[in-house]
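Two proteins follow. First one:
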Amino acid sequence: MKGVLPGGDRAVVVGAGHNGLVAACYLARAGLDVEVVERDSVVGGAVSTVERFPGYRMDRGSSAHIMVRHTGIVEDLDLVSAGLEYQDLDPWGFAPFGDEGIHFHVDLDRTCASIEAVCGSRDAAAYRAFVLDWSARNLRVFQAFQGPPTMTHLGRTLWGIGTSTGLDGLELSRQFLTSADGLLDEHFDDERLKTALAWLGAQSGPPTHEVATADLVGWNTVMHLVPPGHPKGGSGMLSEALQRRLESYGGRVRLGDGAAAITTSGGRTTGVLTSSGEHLPAGLVVAGCHVLTTLDLLGDGLPADLAGRARRSVRTGNGIGMVVRLATSALPAYAAGTPQTYRALQLIAPSRQFLRKAHGEYSAGLPPEQPAALAMTFSAFDDTIAPPGKHNVTVWGQWHPYALSNGESWDAIREREGTKLVEAVDRVAPGFAGSVEQMHVQTPLDLERELGLLRGQVMHVEMAFDQMFLWRPMPELAGYRMPGVGGMYLCGASTHPGGGVFGASGRSAAVVALGDRSPSRLARVAAGARAGRDRLRG
């Protein structure tokens, strides 16, 4: 129903994660009175940065920002003037293999030269062709990610994808539905190149030997168009810039007083009851928290059959991984490293068989004997996140099950499993373990406790093919609206297009909400979004 809704022009956003803040900015810019409620003491949720040790500003969740740099949101909201400064990750990937290593630069020629030096001229040429093909396909996929997952939008953005290759529709669909490992085997010979690409592709969660994972490898090619970024000062600087932009539009963020319930009456939302007992009336509520948390907040206000189906069918899985934040006296010394290596995501896995073994242990509910690791060393070029002469190193490990089948508890094995991640880096950069002076471990259980990531699932719900696009998190909830509750909307990693630092779902949810409320406001938001994307392409 369009027009004036109960609660006037007041909107409440539940959760100050980056998607919730993006939604709040667009709603406030359209003229609504917006308040964001957050249980935590800092903004950003999994896109936040805090001081873990004196002088060390450490990220609590994400560190490298990839997808948001393709959306135009940073440009549209002019977050640079709100204090956001991105430092490009170029090279964006480095895979060490003994005395050799592959660097993935933004510049395709430099990347192919690195691949040729390690893997030979055939794989270098094959990689060039692969990037040109799959980056073109994924520019279309990113268009699909930047709007509601309706059949109209998906059909318009994805129809004809890949036809420039000259391949027919059956072959193109087969390529998208094959496993990433199968796709890699079709294109490349050297196992080291395939391992690096597989490990990077697996960062969304699904292993690359599963069906319909091909584009988890294919979409990484867009990093040759726009590099990942590290916000100077830490990942949370994106969220802090969003908060400042929201406040410049007249919006507010309430910290330390999160939502205790979303209130409803007569099939419509009426506002949010906070943990302190204050009721914030609003005719429009956007929940940026986990979708299952949202169901709990709605309680009896949600149709019972929908709540039951959602709790049965939305899969969070058994966690995904864990991370250690390290205060060190030195950076990892890779045999094939260069000073620029420290800008890259460091992909530490010797083979795809190694990755499959780690995933097999995860599937069995066991902590990995030797985890696959991804290291990040941003203090090499950002002097604001570690004391002088010291370094701030993050090591992410996959796969680590939330529920352990061997009777152990994460609180009991935290230090042991964190040390395994340090040892993973030390195997390819001998001496690194001796440089570690302090270690903060975030197990899957810790990620749930601190960040509200149920079962330690950093993507909210699994990023499997049947929980993407118009099936995310389930068909009834895929359009950002909450069925049976007027004025209630969803955003965040639980919704299309999924996890990672993206912001697209926050903007899309705001567009849908404003379209339901006022077509003229929707037109202004849509025009601004297009302008932001145009400035990015320019």
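Second one, unrelated to the first:
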Amino acid sequence: MKTRTSSEIPLKQECESGMKKTDLKYILILLGLSYLFFMIGSGSLALTNPDEVFYGQTAKEMISHHSWMTPYLFDKPQFEKPILLYWFLRLAYGIFGISSFAARFFPALFAAAGVLSTYLLAALFFGDRKKAFLAGLILASGGLYIGLARTVFTDLIFSIFILLALHSFLLAYLDRRKEGAGILLFFIFSSLAVLTKGPLGLLIPLFIILLFLFFKREFKFLFTPYFFWGAVIFIITTFPWYVFMIRRFGGAFTHEFFYNDHIRRILEAEHTSNDTWYFYPLSMFGCMFPWSLFVLAGAVHLFRRVRSGSTPVYLFLACWIGVVFLVFQSAHSKLVSYIFPLFPALAIMSGDFIYSHAPSASKGRMFFLLCFSSVAALVVFPIGLVVARLRFPEYLPQQCPVFLFILAYSALIAAALFFVFRREFLRSIYLLSLSIPLLLVFFAAIDKHVEPYISSREACDFLLKNYKVDNTILCSKPFLRGVRYCSDKEVAVVDPYGSNFFSPHPVLFLDTDEKIKGFMQRQGITYGVFKKSVISDIERALGKAARLEVLKVIGNEYVVRVDFSKAS
């Protein structure tokens, strides 16, 4: 392997010093905050439409079909995602029972692992446990990170495996004594990422390290026996499930999984409004809130450090951010969560900038303005709640302690501003990290009021408790998965002149007046959960042949009964 250059010797010393300085106190604090931010209250809200119920229902149906290898949805094999998340869900259901807490348990657990890995990686980079703690804190308290940690998606677990793979590579790169273990772990974590979301689980971390080694002119690092054995471990870990699915389902699996869910998303936008050049830059800025301004400043700081060539730390961070951004920017299908693998790098970059400038910024204006603006931006939340209480009281439950929350949030802002004006910037930063978690306290107070607007649980409970439902429940497209999950009944879609899902589901899709009327007529009495806009479409399709009765309105869901024996 190539001898390290003189510019890398300080980094090696920092690496060894950083690991010696890693303090159990900081690890315990970050794990404690992770438990509070990600786990507490995660089961109070039912699984939400349309995505959480997709994963939750797939795991439920795997249990009912006694399947560990084939995911099921609507009692048919489904090929949209690999198997690993469903194994986690099945394990959690076995431990805790089928519940929203169980479904969200492993995302929260992986989120805590990501915070810990970010802390250890920053300590490895900078040799400063306080700077590393700040990087972990920024990641743990960012808006998107908390959001994904408390929901059931593949993206967070996928991103943490990529983080762990990169962490393993850097252990190997920076310390020859750990070269073998680091390279093998790189391939193990990459294989788990591939089993979580697909081939990008290897391609993304591999592209990052190849680009880094290209700039460092150290491709010889790849030519060790460890890379061969790592590739063998990757194949042994990853290939069996894919081979099983291809041999059992053939072209149906390969077309759906490889073409529709990977290649087609590169060529075609599932959400056309997101397919813009600025979607991901704005996402990176907004979803790191309340650290958005520090991300911008950190990017400038990172650019300057890369140009100076001081240590390879900054080059690696730049390769990490650049590869993830470019890979997903080139695809037409764009979602905020797709670029989540670069968020740990943004946290490390921002933590380095803050800790490098805060102690010496007592007389500077730039850092003062960054802190002041970041704290002042928080006033949008209490002001917004005051306006909502006065203008839209119907959307907030009367028993909700809105003004108590406004008082608490205002106190947080006032305390943070106090430290900003005293030029005690790190204290204001620590208070800023509580801004999103404090919002969770408010949402916990209103979650049962919000739940009917984002989940079908209450609508299904009402329907099943009060009526005998012994045939297919019709649904608006956004409610299909939720009604299936919450009722365990056969379901079908009513979407006049609409289009099927991007990945078509094996359910009846009623998209014309003739299909709607004919199906309901055959059922005699039909129950449905619809959006308000669909009600008039159904009435038009039925004419005077049947009676449509709205049984109850729950959130934005209209529970209806159509009876052909009681035509008007």
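SUMMARY FIELD: The radius of gyration is 26 Å. The CA atoms of residues 321 and 342 lie 5 Å apart.
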